[in-house]
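I'd like us to work through together how a protein chain folds, taking it slowly. To get us started, please write out a protein record for me. Label the sequence line and the structure token line clearly, so we can match residues to local backbone shapes. Once you have written the record down, we can walk along the chain together.
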Amino acid sequence: YAVNHDALINKLVDTSAFIFGDYYLSASSFVAEVENVPRIFTVTFAENEYTPPIDLVDVGTKGGSGAKLVYDVVNKSALTGDEYKVSFKLYSTKTAYSTYWKLQNITKGTTLIDSSKEFMGDDPSIAKKPTEGFIVKLPNKYPALGTLTPQTSAAWLNTTKSKVYYVSSDSGLSEKISTLSGLSTLNSKYVRADRLRRVEIKFGESGKAYRYINGYKGSAISRRNSYVYAEGILATDTTGKGPLGQFGVGYVDVPFTVWVEDYATETGGFGERRQLAVGFIEKARADGGNPDGLWNPGTSIDSTGEFILIFDAAYDPNGNQQIYKGGFISGTNTIWADLRGGSNYNIPAGASVTADERAIAASAYFNALYVVALERANSSTFYSSGDKVIIPVATYPYTSQDEFVFKTTKGGVLSGEEEKQLFEKVNVFPNPLYGYNVATGYTGSPSDEPFVTFSNLPEEVTIKIYSLSGTLLRTLNQSHKTSPTSPFLNWDLQNENGIRVASGLYLAIVSSPKFGDKVLKFSIIMPQKQLQRY
């Protein structure tokens, strides 16, 4: 029980605020207490065992998001027993990455909910109109990256300055790189959050990368903002800006390869493994860089600007992905790739490129999935063969690959197999019965009139009780239950003539037209009682 402290008044001070002393119940509270006549409700647990209430039904996980769909049954009688599918689509008209879900009745070929943005997750509320008896509950999945994780033999990374950037503008994890002049205000418009994958940068494996040079192309002012593919730098562009190592070479060796190593787990992932195309940036010497054609971020990534660009495209060992290089002829000019995209990388109208490639060229960072800053902790320690830097995904958003298929039970009733399993649990208790049944303490029955209870019974049932000698003592059926659908039946320990049976061991054969017979053994030790007839 609980005490309503607000109704108590201190005897010395007329207030309900807590003060030490004696209290009394106010007149209004007393009247309210007297007028509220106690009402007792009898509740029998598992009374509807064969037509149970349905808890949240976990459909499980399907797709890269790792989300679990549950459906909450609100109206059992409306359940159809049909098969359903929940799928996801991207809001293509929205800048921010956003998905909606669709509910379809596969059996009938109908769409029940076309585009819902309600992600109820663990919300216990059912204040929502059910669909064919149930409510779909899905957690919201906001895309998120984990912390950049080095696995190195020596601590050569400055973990404070080393980080991964998701440069696309479509989600809350989007970032701009403030130290890259000309790119500091830009974000990618091409890559979407449904492309997030766990990625590993593996050192000691020889690879190739596209090389972009900052600080050479353009006027004294505009050159600091350009990021032109290295083959596009002319000898005249280097005047007064320092030499350019590996001049004219844009596809160069790097001491690492980059792989999608994305595992399918309960929390998300796609089970993919593939090598990705990469690039990196070099700054002009006049601006603190070391454009020698060799990736080395040094001890200040802000100065060297040697960020790694991880493109969302397959690795080509021959470097034939022209969209990352440019080299398109426009009249007397050659158009080279520039990481700023847009007007800085105008592919000629007649160029042999796809619409998708034009969209990549129009975007800053092209289709870079991640841009990675790796800064060395000191000048004497660097990578070793076998070192890795891992880019984990903390939360995968919903994508078109996510799909949930489930089936309800018509009317919410148990299946035949479930009913059979329940019948196998038919039992009798208490067993043994010693003198009296403790249940008489709250049923109102006399303590010297004990009974045993048969449980887990189907709706239609017959129970025949025998002595060990094989004498049939009593036949019971569903009419002896408190209600026809109750799984319980009490035997008052009397034979067909209303005479109490003696102490001993008894057999009960429980018979069901649907499930067959089950034999139970139970013992009874009867209390002393003055018989009224004998």
